[in-house]
Amino acid sequence: MKYVVVFDMDDTLYEELTYVKSGFKAVADFLNEEFMIDINESYTFMCARLLQDGRGSIFNALLEYYGVYTSDLVKKCVDVYRYHQPTIKLQAEMINLLNSLKNYPLYVVTDGFVPTQEKKIQALGLSNFMKKSITSYSLGSDKGKPSPYWFKQIVHWEKVEPTQVVYIGDNANKDFVGIKPLGFHTIRVETGDYKDQVPSDLHEAEHVIECLRELPHVLKKIWQDFRIEGELK
Q1: How far, in Å, CA of 112 to CA of 78, rounded?
Q2: Same domain, 57 and 107
Q3: What are the average pLDDT values for consecutive 10-residue runs of the chain, which has 233 residues?
């Protein structure tokens, strides 16, 4: 039987905080070039603000702190953040997992600003593992999750039924609610900002795991004839 494994990207395949900090570093470098603001100091400010208040208006607060605030400069910092070349990577354990699934079609479906998501895909080297990495907003934000649009496309491309497809993600607010009624299998991994959420039955995945090391076991539970290549180290 043919099976298709589809992953979310941020906080599923890698820790998104590493991207956020990479973006902060790019903004710190930019402000150093423009205003001679100390790189380490501004980077530390952004990290502390993130920990204190979440993502919110970090750049506004940063520029106000240094007395250089303008709305145009905030927009420039956002652009630097969004378009920077990220220093992120897949962990060895994740590479091992993806290699163990190489006999199956693998996909990524990720929401978000398309140029940013494409840079993440490139930096993570996902083309080495995935048949296709889909930035869901590429045809408009209405095609993003919880829309089942791209999942229906995958079913069409692979000539399978929804019951032959599983989606692994971290955010029950949107990842599963649109595809569960269609018969897709779903797995929530308790990582990132949403690891402690308690979803409703409507939004919760079919299976919940603490980390992706548990994924092979759950895939074999979903499909009894599912086979893993080698053993996870």
Answers
A1: 14
A2: no
A3: 97 97 98 98 97 90 97 98 98 97 97 97 98 97 97 98 98 97 98 91 96 96 90 47
